[in-house]
Amino acid sequence: MNYVEKAVCLRRALHKIPELGWGEFCTTAKIIENLEPLGWKLYVGRQQISEEAVMGRSEEFVQKSIERALSEGVDKALIERMEGYTGCVAEFDTRRPGPVTALRFDIDCVGVEETDRKDHLPNLEGFRSQHEGAMHSCGHDGHTAVGLSVAQWIMDHKDELNGRIKLIFQPAEEGVRGGAAQAASGLLDDVNYLLGAHLAMMCKTGEVCIYPGGVLCTTKLDVRLKGKPAHPTMSPQLGRNALACACTIVSELLGMARHGNGLGCINVGLMQAGECRNVIPVHASIQLEVRGETAEINDFMVDQANRIVKGTALAYDVEYEVEKVGEAGELLNDPELADLVKEVSEKVPSCRKVIDHKKLGCSEDFTMLAARVRAVGGKTEFFVIGADRTAAHHQREFDFDEKGLETAFDIFTGCLRRLNGK
Predict the structure, then answer these.
(1) Quick check: 271 pLDDT over 90?
(2) Contacts of 310 (CB under 8 A, 6+ apart)
(3) 3-state DSSP assignment of residue 262
């Protein structure tokens, strides 16, 4: 079995066990089981994240994910080794002088139920999701599979390489929650070159986009409100209405001013409030996100949102709490590294067309890892590898052309030959 065939097999195995962010215990176990026998030095659990930088992680959800992983046969010793934190950073040192190059692969899935359409490839070939309400509908199963195949290639060609290579298997990309925590671990502080990529993303099979545009900064916020209960007619003056406060906050958020220097947007995705019909509502919660074309615009939107929450809570005399549960920054590709990826891509047989710019309209917490690398003088590049889709990302019918795995593998290994080759 060659490297690409292995990537396809791995992708299909991973597709069957999709796991939401911070719950990827089966996936992390599979990564460890593939890498450790090859001789990679592994950083697992608290070794590869900073707990202080973790966002959007629920202990209750983590425990349920661990219980499911154990019930599905994951070794208890592996679970204990993860210390409740998913993801993994692998390192190989050639013990010869050379740069430190890191490749990033995200590992989590999306919370949608996979389609039951008979013509859907995972249904036809028997590798549909086995986890209810979860599906790899963004291609991260492909990313992880490519990373594991590249890991095998590196060890098979280790005598041809110099310097050190790190493979970053990042948890919780959806909701942009995991990148900041891995970046803050310090494991990237010696990295000279950081490469990342995404499959599909509006590009056709055989296309590679070097400078994806429209990758927006974003901040995810959870708002919690606490009022006071009271009888709505006998003693309404004693109550403090958290539901009414939440409604006003949502209206103000959706109508807040935008920035004149570029795109800024806000979405309130969830509001929950109240206890029962005959008590003034005590509790309310709001889940929202802002996005900005630049860090300046995104920060402007966040500041406005915080002021609206604070001011409205003060007006209603309701206690409030705002928690940041996800974050991604600007995508700033280094021209030198981008040129290298372009040159390598043009020589890859499965790549038919290299595109300099294409607008995507999404967010990516690769940007948090990249910012850490750039802060210590390193260079970063994030590119898109076309793989025709059956449906848009995050939809039940999503699937990608597995020919994209070959393109991804060839570009990553080609870049390693250029950056770390003898």
Answers:
(1) yes
(2) 320
(3) coil
